[in-house]
Each structure stands twice: as structure tokens, then as C-alpha cells.
Amino acid sequence: MGNVVAGKFPGTVRLQVDRPPAEGYIAGQKIRGAVYCTSTKSLDAGVPLNVDAFLVGKERSLVKYEEIEYYYESFINAEGRRVREQRARTVTRYRYAERNVVAMAIHLADISTGVKQGVQYKFPFQVTLPQDLPSSMHCQEHSHVYRNYGHYDYRDWAQIGYDGNGYCSVSYDIHAELKGKGLFSTQRTNQGIKVLAAPLPEQALPHYVPPVSRDINFCCCFDKGKITFGAKIDDTRIGQGENASIDFAVRNQSEVRIERVEASIVEHCTWYAGGRQNDVIREISKAMFRPNPRWDAVTKSTRATLEGDHDEYNRTLRMIHDAVEVGDNSSYVNAPLQCLQTYQGALVTTRHRIKIKVHMDGFFVNAPEVNIPMRIGTRHDILGKDKPGKIDVSFTEVPNELEKPTPEDEEDGDIVIAPGVFVGESQAVLGGKDIKQVKEDEKMGDDGDIVIPPLQEVLDPTLDNLIYELKFAVSPASIVRHYLSLLEWREKVFSVLAPPQYAHILKSCEIEFDQPEIATAIAPVIRNGNFTCDYVIAAVGVVNDWLRISMVQKLIPFTTDLAQNKQKIKNKLTEWENVCTEKDIQNEINRQQGPPQGPPQGQFNQGPPPPGQFNQGPPQGQFNQGPPQGQYNQGPPQGQFNQGPPQGQYNQGPPQGQYNQGPPQGQYNQ
Q1: 299 or 83, which is more confident?
Q2: Distance of CA 52 to the CA centre of its chain
Q3: Minimal CA–CA distance to 139: which of 238, 278, 242?
Q4: Contact, 554 vs 514, CB < 8 A?
Q5: Residue 131 CA: distances (Å) to CA of 196, 278, 544
Q6: What values do phi and psi take at 652, rounded to 5?
Q7: For residue 56, what pLDDT band results from cuts at 50, 70 and 90?
Q8: For residue 583, which of 54, 208, 134 has the smallest C-alpha distance?
Q9: Residue range 507-514: average pLDDT?
Q10: At a CB cut-off of 8 Å and minimum separation 6, what does 209 contact?
Q11: For residue 583, what is the DSSP state?
Q12: How far apart, in Å, are the Cα atoms of 644 and each of 641, 652, 656?
């Protein structure tokens, strides 16, 4: 229930929103509510009143920083003379910024027929949340308390930061507004809502961590050899409360034993305002790998032998790849339910990474580590295991349902219910580049009317317009999906893309986890399905290193010339990337070429043999020259003798089912 607001309007305005699910409203679902207006006086028909509701989501940031301030101070010195000296002091300053994430206007009614005293007017509405909204969140500097949502009075300067520290947030509110002209001023009330981002895709996005070799030094200068280690993450996109499975492998070629290996999830939240920034970095989960014999130290002589073997590195790559493929040493790290979700906005950025750290035995020995980007979001089965990733429409589309009085309405006495208003996500204005900045000596006050930016004008189908939208989009993948659904955009932009233009689109997407989805969505449209290896090479050249293997694996099924030009792709990959993708490339070539023609090599008498041939394995005109002397036709099972050939062919002499048991003298094979 929203706050009750009284003002010059002779009565009250209140807002009621249906109770959300326990986890909050999920992006893509519908919110149902109503605005109630009650007047304590009768108003004539000549007094116009407008009733509106608004859905507004904002990202906000308050940056706290310190700087040196110089000032002059006058005083009497020991000689009795007044002097003026420059001094310095440290002062704390703040910068505040905010930006719209979403804005939607819901026009409910224009009242010009008069208002009766004591009668309650109900204006029901239903609004669909855009599917690309980020989750509600709040993060505060020097705080280890997680807040996934919350609504604070950001206009009260004394309360900003809540303990004098910086903070950032993404929050959503529904506002109700009764706006009059002349005698009556605008009355408002609002209610905060918790929003969860749409569920993550069910399809996994694995990542092979390229093996890294690190020198092991004692006291920073004494060389003790090196270690080479790698890993595989089964899925770099996990939901809050889910586990990330990690397979780890290491080859110790140093004189120091590996003491332990840790895997952890690190959360890094950054927010910006006025050219300044604050950060919060925290470790939210940790796990250990179990030791194995490859962790033991090697002797000096063994180390010298390994260092002199030029093929040792290739063998190490193969060993690590095979070990992580079979899950030789696995562990799990959990994304806590209360952690933040991965998000990249104009003012607020939350990133997550998996850190694998190798601790060596002894003091003053360096500890190598590697970091892998990951994405934490809304788990794909949050709506139920039977319908993962699908939005459950909880509220009916029938207007009459909105217009029926509730038990609460009946208790309030006389009530007039207006027709229900339905607003779809097409009326939402998402994102934008307009950022409001406030200095530390100003207050973030009420700006008067709630201003909803106009709906974006229809853009001409050009590559430049697409790139421009991707830079300011809340969800670049949704922008691409939207334009792919439009025939004019498919024909004039996507179907005629050259490899450099295809790569330019991927590079313009600042959200790395959206790049594979965008790449695979565009691929089948290019040249009406004639997607070549040149596009794969262009895509691999612009994405981050950790995405290169996944990009190859996801794009090669769309190629039409893989068998002829696979070497072009291999030439652009590292040794490790070739090891990880060679099986995928070969399997895709086999799939495209179809099943092999004819009987598989090495089988015996499948189907009738061509005329003049017997047992297709030997060359024409020869008869089983392969077997060693004294053996004859070892291919058939032991104890059988060419039962397949039709009766009347050669070697009918021996009894059926016997094998060279001493034919009568004078026959073949004496």
C-alpha cells in the first residue's frame, strides 16, 4: 500500500499494488494495481483533473572522496606581528548522479464531469515489465551487508550514504499522480517494488582456461622452476544460490610442493559520479581442490630433464586438457543468494570473476593465480523446474477482472470503478544517455512533474544506427533480436554484412556475455545462410580471450565451407585453443558431410559384392594375399569358413563350419 498524500486537493490519493511473489516481480511479468482518489468536498464539472501512474526505474550513485584544500590563516607570531600563512586540510566531498533505467507512463483518466463528496474513485491498471530490466540492488562502501533491493529517501541530503559513505543502487517505483489545474496542485504518492532480472539462458556457456605457466621464485629472485595449470568451468553463467563446477589440472615442474589450491568468487562493484568513482571488492565464496601426486615437487635432475625436452610443453597441454575433460579434480563454488547480480550500466557496474590461486609450500614463495569472468543472474528454473526460463503470466488479460470490486473496496462504501488500463512493454523507454549530476553543496530535490522521455523514433535500417543503439542499450542482445525480427532490417543490414562489419557489431556490445548470443543470432541471416569461416575468424579477433573457444564452438555449425577452410580458423588460434576445438571442428565436418558411403572399412561381406570381387577388402583379382602363410581368411569368426558367399563358390570342399581341418590331398593349400 502506498503512502497517503493530502494537499490542496480536498481529499486523499493512494496507490495499491498487488502483492508480488516471494522473490519479487520478474522482468517480463505483469504488475496489477489501482489508484484511489477520495474527495471530502464535491467538485463541479468545470474542474478538470488528470489521473496518471508511472513506472520509473533509476540507477543512482553517491561517490565519496577526499581532497586537499588549501586555505590561509592569520595569527600573531612571537614577535607580536600579525602574519598570514597557507595551510592545508583534508576535506570529504560527495558527488551524486542518477539515470533512468526504464520509464513508462500509464494514463488512467481525465475527470471533467465533477467529483462527488465522500465517493471513492478507483482507477485500475496493469503494466508489463520489460524483459530486459536489471535486478534491484544496493551496494554501500565499507559495508559487508548485502541489500538486493530497497527504497530510500534519496532527496534527504542528511541521509545520503546512511553512514557518510558512498553507495549505489538500482531501484524501481510506481508513482500515482492526481494533477489539477487552477485551484488544485498536483498530489503524488509512490510505492517501491522489487524486480528480478529475467532468468538466465538454460544453455551452458563453458570456458576452458588456457594453461598458464608461472615461474616459482623464492624470495623473489631464486628460481625454483615453474608450474603449468589450467581449468574448465562447466558454465560461466549461474544463478544466485547455484554452484559453478570447476575442473582443475596442474603439472608441477618446480622444486617446491604445492600446498593447496583455492577457487573463489570475487565480486567487484563500481559506481561513478562527477568523474569520480567508489569501489567495493569482496570475496563471496571459496572452495578447495583435493591434492594429488602431480602436486609433488621434482628433483633438480628431473627438472633439468624436463626443461631440456622441447616436446614437454605439448605433452603438458594434452595432459591438462584430458584431465579437465574427465573431471580428474573437481570442486564447486557457490553464488550466495544474497550476492549482487552481474550488471553493467552507465553509473553502476557489478562484475564477478572466479579466481583460482595456487599456494606453494614454504615462506616467501609466490602464489600464482588466474581469473575467469563469470555472470551471476536469476537462476533459469526460478519459475519452476517444469518451465525453466519462461515467464509465467500471473495476471489475466481480461479487463473485467481489473474492474471488479475487491473485498477492501466493498468495505470502503460507495466506490466508482473506472475502466481498466493496460500498458505493454512496447510503451517503455529503456536506458538513455541523459545523466543528472549534483554537486555536494546541492540537494537532490523534487523536480516537479515526472517527465517521461518520448518513445524512441523509428530509426532507419543502417549499421550506424544499430551501433549507436548498442552503446546505450540496457540489453544489447535484445536490441539485436528486435531488429532481426524486422524484415527491412534483415534485408538491408544483417543479410549484407561483411566480416569486418559483423565483427564491429560484436565489438560494440560492451556486455561480453551477450556477444555469443548476438553472434549466433545474426549468423544464419548473413548472405541468406552462406556464413563462411571468414566470419568466424573476424568474430574471434574482436572478442575477449576467454570467449574465443566458445565463439568457435558456437559459430562453426553455421559455416558452409568448414571442410575447405578449417585451416584458416586453426591458424588464428593458439595451441591450447586448437587442442580444445579440434574435436568440435572434426565432428561438425562429419555432420555436414553426412554418414560415410559404403560399408565401413574392415567389415566382411556386407551386402552383395560387385561382380568379379570376393570379400571387397583384397584388390580385384587377388584372393586373400594378406594373411600369413598357413592362415586363410582370419576375418570370419574362429571355426567358420566363408559362410557368407553363395553356394557353389570356391572352397566348398571343407564341411560347413570347419576351418582348414586338413582337406583331401591334392586340393588347394597342401
Answers
A1: 83
A2: 36
A3: 278
A4: no
A5: 10, 29, 26
A6: -85, -10
A7: very high
A8: 208
A9: 86
A10: 230, 231, 232, 233, 356, 370, 372, 546
A11: H
A12: 9, 12, 11
Contact 510, 477 (CB under 8 A): no
CA distance 340 to 371: 19
User: pTM of the full predicted structure?
Assistant: 0.73
Give residue 249's Cα distance to chain centre.
Answer: 26
Predicted pLDDT of residue 75 = 84
The yes-or-no verdict on residue 320 having pLDDT over 70 is yes
Rg (CA), the chain: 36
Angle between helices 476-484 and 463-472 (to 10 degrees): 150
What 3-state DSSP class applies to 313?
helix
Contact 206, 177 (CB under 8 A): no
**Residue that has been written with the C-alpha cell 474542474 in this structure:** 47
Q: What's the grid cell of residue 629?
A: 602363410
Q: What is the pLDDT of residue 400?
A: 45
Q: Per-residue confidence at 145, pLDDT binned at 50, 70, 90? A: very low
- Host H or E run for residue 563: helix 562-571
Average pLDDT over residues 461-474: 85
| Cα–Cα dist 359/367, whole Å | 5
H helix or E strand, kind and range, residue 411: helix 407-411
Please state, as a whole number, how many other Cβ atoms lie within 10 Å of the Cβ of residue 622: 10
* Burial of 23: CB neighbours in 10 Å, binned 0-12, 13-18, 19+: middle
